[in-house]
Amino acid sequence: MRAVIAEDSLLLRIGVVKVLEAAGFEMCAQVADAEGLLAAVEEHRPDIAVVDVRMPPGFTDEGVRAALVIRRQYPRTAVLLLSQYVEERYAADLLAANTSGVGYLLKQRVADVEEFAEAVRRVAAGGTALDPQVVAQLLVRRHSDPLDRLTPREREVLELMAGGRSNSGIAAELVVSESAVAKHINSIFTKLDLPKADADHRRVLAVLRFLGVVTA
Protein backbone atom coordinates (compact mmCIF):
# COMPACT_ATOMS: atom_id res chain seq x y z
CA MET A 1 0.00 0.00 0.00
CA ARG A 2 1.11 3.55 -0.74
CA ALA A 3 1.00 6.33 1.87
CA VAL A 4 1.53 10.06 2.30
CA ILE A 5 2.41 11.56 5.69
CA ALA A 6 1.51 15.13 6.74
CA GLU A 7 2.99 16.06 10.13
CA ASP A 8 4.80 19.26 11.10
CA SER A 9 6.80 17.61 13.91
CA LEU A 10 9.92 16.26 12.24
CA LEU A 11 10.58 13.64 14.93
CA LEU A 12 7.05 12.25 14.85
CA ARG A 13 7.02 12.30 11.06
CA ILE A 14 10.22 10.27 10.95
CA GLY A 15 8.78 7.86 13.50
CA VAL A 16 5.56 7.30 11.57
CA VAL A 17 7.50 6.81 8.35
CA LYS A 18 9.78 4.19 9.92
CA VAL A 19 6.81 2.33 11.45
CA LEU A 20 4.91 2.21 8.17
CA GLU A 21 7.94 1.32 6.07
CA ALA A 22 8.65 -1.57 8.44
CA ALA A 23 5.01 -2.63 8.00
CA GLY A 24 5.45 -2.79 4.23
CA PHE A 25 4.00 0.56 3.16
CA GLU A 26 5.53 2.51 0.29
CA MET A 27 6.05 6.10 1.41
CA CYS A 28 5.20 8.41 -1.48
CA ALA A 29 5.72 11.75 0.26
CA GLN A 30 6.41 13.40 3.63
CA VAL A 31 5.10 16.93 4.12
CA ALA A 32 4.69 19.43 6.96
CA ASP A 33 1.55 21.38 6.05
CA ALA A 34 -1.89 21.07 4.49
CA GLU A 35 -0.89 22.69 1.21
CA GLY A 36 1.92 20.18 0.74
CA LEU A 37 -0.45 17.36 1.67
CA LEU A 38 -3.02 18.25 -1.00
CA ALA A 39 -0.28 18.60 -3.62
CA ALA A 40 1.20 15.21 -2.65
CA VAL A 41 -2.16 13.45 -2.79
CA GLU A 42 -2.91 14.97 -6.20
CA GLU A 43 0.47 13.83 -7.52
CA HIS A 44 0.69 10.35 -6.01
CA ARG A 45 -2.95 9.30 -5.40
CA PRO A 46 -1.91 7.16 -2.40
CA ASP A 47 -4.01 4.49 -0.73
CA ILE A 48 -3.92 6.45 2.53
CA ALA A 49 -2.94 9.83 3.92
CA VAL A 50 -1.86 10.00 7.58
CA VAL A 51 -2.61 13.56 8.64
CA ASP A 52 -1.90 15.70 11.69
CA VAL A 53 -5.05 17.56 12.82
CA ARG A 54 -3.20 20.82 13.53
CA MET A 55 -0.57 22.08 11.11
CA PRO A 56 0.90 25.38 9.89
CA PRO A 57 0.07 28.12 9.45
CA GLY A 58 -2.69 28.41 12.06
CA PHE A 59 -2.29 25.16 14.01
CA THR A 60 -6.07 24.80 14.38
CA ASP A 61 -7.91 22.42 12.06
CA GLU A 62 -5.85 22.62 8.86
CA GLY A 63 -5.41 18.85 8.73
CA VAL A 64 -9.12 18.18 9.16
CA ARG A 65 -10.08 20.60 6.41
CA ALA A 66 -7.48 19.07 4.09
CA ALA A 67 -8.77 15.59 4.96
CA LEU A 68 -12.31 16.59 3.99
CA VAL A 69 -11.02 17.91 0.66
CA ILE A 70 -9.18 14.64 0.05
CA ARG A 71 -12.27 12.55 0.81
CA ARG A 72 -14.34 14.69 -1.54
CA GLN A 73 -11.89 15.00 -4.44
CA TYR A 74 -9.94 11.73 -4.09
CA PRO A 75 -12.42 9.22 -2.59
CA ARG A 76 -10.07 6.29 -3.18
CA THR A 77 -7.55 7.78 -0.75
CA ALA A 78 -8.31 6.85 2.85
CA VAL A 79 -7.50 9.31 5.64
CA LEU A 80 -6.20 8.70 9.16
CA LEU A 81 -6.10 11.76 11.41
CA LEU A 82 -3.57 12.03 14.25
CA SER A 83 -4.22 14.33 17.19
CA GLN A 84 -2.40 15.28 20.38
CA TYR A 85 -5.66 15.51 22.34
CA VAL A 86 -9.17 14.02 22.21
CA GLU A 87 -11.26 16.22 19.91
CA GLU A 88 -14.06 13.88 18.96
CA ARG A 89 -15.93 16.41 16.81
CA TYR A 90 -13.21 16.00 14.17
CA ALA A 91 -13.92 12.28 13.97
CA ALA A 92 -17.63 13.07 13.59
CA ASP A 93 -16.89 15.64 10.85
CA LEU A 94 -14.85 13.12 8.90
CA LEU A 95 -17.40 10.32 9.28
CA ALA A 96 -20.23 12.63 8.28
CA ALA A 97 -18.44 13.19 4.96
CA ASN A 98 -17.66 9.51 4.30
CA THR A 99 -18.28 6.33 6.25
CA SER A 100 -15.38 4.20 5.03
CA GLY A 101 -11.62 4.55 4.88
CA VAL A 102 -11.39 6.97 7.81
CA GLY A 103 -9.59 6.94 11.15
CA TYR A 104 -8.84 9.15 14.14
CA LEU A 105 -6.10 8.22 16.61
CA LEU A 106 -4.16 9.96 19.34
CA LYS A 107 -0.48 10.40 18.53
CA GLN A 108 0.51 8.31 21.52
CA ARG A 109 -0.81 5.24 19.66
CA VAL A 110 2.15 5.42 17.28
CA ALA A 111 4.29 4.01 20.10
CA ASP A 112 2.38 0.72 19.89
CA VAL A 113 3.96 -0.15 16.57
CA GLU A 114 2.00 -3.28 15.68
CA GLU A 115 -1.39 -1.91 16.67
CA PHE A 116 -0.77 1.39 14.88
CA ALA A 117 0.33 -0.35 11.68
CA GLU A 118 -2.75 -2.59 11.82
CA ALA A 119 -5.00 0.46 12.23
CA VAL A 120 -3.42 2.11 9.18
CA ARG A 121 -3.89 -1.08 7.16
CA ARG A 122 -7.53 -1.33 8.22
CA VAL A 123 -8.29 2.26 7.23
CA ALA A 124 -6.40 1.95 3.94
CA ALA A 125 -8.49 -1.13 3.15
CA GLY A 126 -11.70 0.85 3.60
CA GLY A 127 -12.37 0.27 7.29
CA THR A 128 -12.39 2.60 10.28
CA ALA A 129 -10.14 3.11 13.30
CA LEU A 130 -11.22 5.33 16.18
CA ASP A 131 -9.07 5.92 19.23
CA PRO A 132 -10.38 4.12 22.34
CA GLN A 133 -10.26 7.39 24.30
CA VAL A 134 -12.42 9.11 21.71
CA VAL A 135 -14.90 6.25 21.74
CA ALA A 136 -14.98 6.17 25.55
CA GLN A 137 -15.59 9.91 25.74
CA LEU A 138 -18.42 9.66 23.24
CA LEU A 139 -19.92 6.78 25.18
CA VAL A 140 -20.00 8.86 28.37
CA ARG A 141 -21.57 11.85 26.63
CA ARG A 142 -24.42 10.00 24.89
CA HIS A 143 -27.34 10.00 27.30
CA SER A 144 -30.42 10.10 25.05
CA ASP A 145 -32.51 7.23 23.74
CA PRO A 146 -32.23 4.87 21.99
CA LEU A 147 -28.62 4.33 23.12
CA ASP A 148 -29.79 4.09 26.73
CA ARG A 149 -31.56 0.86 25.81
CA LEU A 150 -28.29 -0.97 25.29
CA THR A 151 -26.91 -3.33 27.91
CA PRO A 152 -23.32 -2.84 29.17
CA ARG A 153 -22.16 -5.72 26.96
CA GLU A 154 -23.94 -4.28 23.91
CA ARG A 155 -22.26 -0.95 24.59
CA GLU A 156 -18.90 -2.72 24.67
CA VAL A 157 -19.68 -4.35 21.32
CA LEU A 158 -20.81 -1.04 19.80
CA GLU A 159 -17.69 0.67 21.15
CA LEU A 160 -15.50 -1.91 19.41
CA MET A 161 -17.58 -1.62 16.22
CA ALA A 162 -16.95 2.13 16.30
CA GLY A 163 -13.25 1.38 16.62
CA GLY A 164 -13.40 -0.54 13.35
CA ARG A 165 -13.27 -4.09 14.72
CA SER A 166 -14.76 -6.96 12.74
CA ASN A 167 -16.98 -9.59 14.39
CA SER A 168 -13.97 -11.87 14.82
CA GLY A 169 -11.94 -8.99 16.27
CA ILE A 170 -14.71 -8.17 18.74
CA ALA A 171 -14.99 -11.83 19.73
CA ALA A 172 -11.26 -12.02 20.40
CA GLU A 173 -11.27 -8.80 22.44
CA LEU A 174 -14.24 -9.83 24.60
CA VAL A 175 -13.27 -13.53 24.71
CA VAL A 176 -16.64 -14.72 23.41
CA SER A 177 -17.78 -16.64 20.34
CA GLU A 178 -18.48 -14.94 17.01
CA SER A 179 -22.07 -16.18 17.21
CA ALA A 180 -22.46 -14.37 20.54
CA VAL A 181 -21.12 -11.19 18.93
CA ALA A 182 -23.57 -11.56 16.04
CA LYS A 183 -26.46 -11.87 18.51
CA HIS A 184 -25.33 -8.74 20.35
CA ILE A 185 -25.07 -6.82 17.07
CA ASN A 186 -28.55 -7.90 15.97
CA SER A 187 -29.87 -6.76 19.35
CA ILE A 188 -28.11 -3.41 18.91
CA PHE A 189 -29.74 -2.96 15.50
CA THR A 190 -33.16 -3.67 17.00
CA LYS A 191 -32.71 -1.36 19.99
CA LEU A 192 -31.43 1.48 17.81
CA ASP A 193 -34.51 1.14 15.58
CA LEU A 194 -32.40 0.54 12.50
CA PRO A 195 -34.36 -0.68 9.46
CA LYS A 196 -33.69 -4.12 8.06
CA ALA A 197 -31.12 -3.80 5.31
CA ASP A 198 -27.78 -5.32 4.47
CA ALA A 199 -25.64 -5.91 7.56
CA ASP A 200 -22.85 -3.56 6.50
CA HIS A 201 -25.27 -0.66 6.03
CA ARG A 202 -26.85 -1.14 9.45
CA ARG A 203 -23.41 -1.49 11.02
CA VAL A 204 -22.40 1.92 9.65
CA LEU A 205 -25.67 3.49 10.79
CA ALA A 206 -25.22 2.08 14.30
CA VAL A 207 -21.72 3.55 14.56
CA LEU A 208 -22.83 6.93 13.15
CA ARG A 209 -25.69 7.08 15.64
CA PHE A 210 -23.26 6.23 18.43
CA LEU A 211 -20.98 9.05 17.32
CA GLY A 212 -23.87 11.50 17.12
CA VAL A 213 -23.39 12.03 13.37
CA VAL A 214 -26.97 10.92 12.76
CA THR A 215 -29.82 10.76 15.26
CA ALA A 216 -32.91 8.64 15.68
Automatic annotation (TrEMBL):
Q: Which domain of life is it from?
A: Bacteria
Q: Which residues form the HTH luxR-type domain?
A: 143-214
Residues with the 4-aspartylphosphate modification:
52
| Keyword annotations | DNA-binding, Phosphoprotein, Transcription, Transcription regulation
Claim: tRNA-binding is one of the keywords in the record: no
Matching PROSITE patterns: HTH_LUXR_2 (PS50043), RESPONSE_REGULATORY (PS50110)
Instruction: Enumerate the InterPro entries for this protein.
Output: CheY-like_superfamily, NreC/VraR/RcsB-like_REC, Sig_transdc_resp-reg_C-effctor, Sig_transdc_resp-reg_receiver, Tscrpt_reg_LuxR_C, WalR-like
> Response regulatory domain: which residues?
2-122
One Pfam match: GerE
Please give the SMART domains that the UniProt record associates with this protein.
Answer: HTH_LUXR, REC
Record protein name field: Response regulator
